[in-house]
Every structure is written in C-alpha cells, then in structure tokens.
From TrEMBL:
SUPFAM superfamilies: LDH C-terminal domain-like (SSF56327), NAD(P)-binding Rossmann-fold domains (SSF51735). It catalyses: (S)-malate + NAD(+) = oxaloacetate + NADH + H(+). Keywords: NAD, Oxidoreductase, Tricarboxylic acid cycle. Belongs to the LDH/MDH superfamily. MDH type 2 family. This is Malate dehydrogenase. PROSITE patterns: MDH (PS00068).
Amino acid sequence: MKDPIKVVVTGAAGRIANNILPRICHGDAFGSNQPVILSLLDITPALPVLKGIVMELEDCCFPLITSIETSDDPKVALKDADFALMLASYPFRPGMERVDLLIKNKAIFKQQGIALDTVAKKTVKVLVVGNPANTNCLVLSEHAPSIPKENFCALTRLDHNRAVSLLAARAGCTVRDIDGPVCIFGNHSSTMAVYAHSATVKGKKIQDVVEKDFFSREFEPLVQVRGGAIIKAKGTPSVFSAAAAIIDCIHDWMVGSEGRIVSMAVASSGKYGIPEGVFFSVPCKCEDGKYEVVDLDIDPSYKEEFEAKLQKSYQELISEAKLAEIY
Ligand code: LMR
C-alpha cells in the first residue's frame, strides 16, 4: 500500500458526488493500492446531508479510506490537498445570461483558487467539472499562481466518451472496437471540435465503416449538443455519465492512460496554434500524474476546416475570459 493522499471533493452533497464518492473510495480513480483521506466540501446548508453521506460511506467499510472530513470552508477542506475535484459551480438558471453565469462562478472559483494557493500542497492536481468548466479552471489557476498551470485540468472526457460511444453505435460495434485517436478539441461547449478522422474500427478506417454524411455532417453536432439533449430528455443534467467520465479522467491522469490518447482541457501552450492563456481540450497521453500533449497528424484534406474550428472555440474561450474579467 502507498501512503495516503488527501482528496478533496467540492459540491460533495450534490448528485454527481453521490455517484462518484463510492467509486473514489473503491479505488477506481486513484488505484486499488492508494489509500485516501477524503475531504468533503459543500455550502453550510448542505452540512447535514454531508453528515449522512459520511455515515453511508463509513457503512461501506471501504478498506482504502483512511478518514473522512467535512467542511463548509475551502481553507479547511483544501488544507494539504493532493487532489481537488471541483464539482461545485453556480448552476445555469432560466433567464440568466451567460455573463451572469460567468460572474457568479468567478466569485466561487476565485475564492477556491485563493484557498488552494494558500493551503493546498504545491503539488496538488485539480480537475474542474463545474460549468463553464474551461473558464472556471482558468479563474481557479489564475488565483492560485503558486501552483503550476500543468496541475490544472477541466473535464472534456465526457465529450470524448460520448464521441467514442456514438461512433461505435453507428458502426455497429462495441466501444472496445474503436481504435486510433478520437479526440475533443477546445471548449466544453457547442464550439468544441471532434477529431476522429484517423480512428479505425477493427482495423478498417472509420470513414469506410460509417456513412459519409453521418461522419462529415451529423457526428460532431451530436457530440456538441449531447449534454443539452440529456437535459431536455431527463429534465436534469447528466449525472452518472459525468461521474464515469470523471473517474476515467482522474484514473488516466493519476495512474496512467497506458498509451491511449484521451481528451483533457489543459493550459494551452501554443500547440495546435492555440496561444497560452486558456484551458483548451487537446489529445493527451498520461503517466504517473503527468500528461503530455500529443501532436496528431491531422488529415490534410480536413486541416483548414479543422483549424478554423479550433480558432472559433479559442475565440469563445477568450470572450469568456474577458467576461470573467481575466483579460
Ligand atoms: C454535460 O455536458 O452533460 C453537462 O456539462 C451539461 C450541464 O450543463 O451540466
């Protein structure tokens, strides 16, 4: 067994946390040999619910759990954190403008960024899920300047998983049969670009397996609006698919992606023509808690159109950052 790590979950009384906490405690995210000190953060009115959640987790007798703490104070919850999973964000309400959402979330992520900077370990890794995830991640990292930008990531694994699953359904195969890179670029929003031109199905090029029209016209918009389609169908946002994607993302980042290419929104570094200063989803390979951005060979016949899509998503991220008063 390794030494325990402290894992903080914000929004810990919420729906996604409810799906994710047992899986973290079971070792699905950090590995079956990694003990965890669990720190649950939520707002003051949610503390009684957190008490009940702790009772249930205790009743599960998870061998990997060293202790469980709860708090409504980020500076208490995040103290000495090794990993912070930021689920909490101000939700979109009917009648709200996007700017209102960004300003409300700026306040939350600024406070949590300052707390991270002050009390967390300098090696802490941070995954932001609460929407608008890429810009919330930017706000957080801007307010935690003593923590390297490479330690922050926003979730686009949900979009990645959706893309793989939609392709498999259309190709009439299982997700295991989809090989080669399928990757999300840009913002977790309708401007995201999905790159699957080099994917294969049981050794055949994906373009030779699914209909041309589906691949070139329908597939990407389906991925882009999938979150909204789920809200329309269920009346609530995605929960267990989000939880599954979070577990996949943490596992691959912290334990390793075993050579597979996965999608992560990370600090832009000039790759793919995206200047520094935003959190932009790109293809990554991970090992031992570190990611490396993969340079894909983009299909030359699609390159110009693809690059224009990346710039559109980048411009959206810049306008979000301006609304959040980062630039
Ligand atoms: C999703 O993609 O399912 C979510 O980000 C949607 C949402 O607004 O929570």
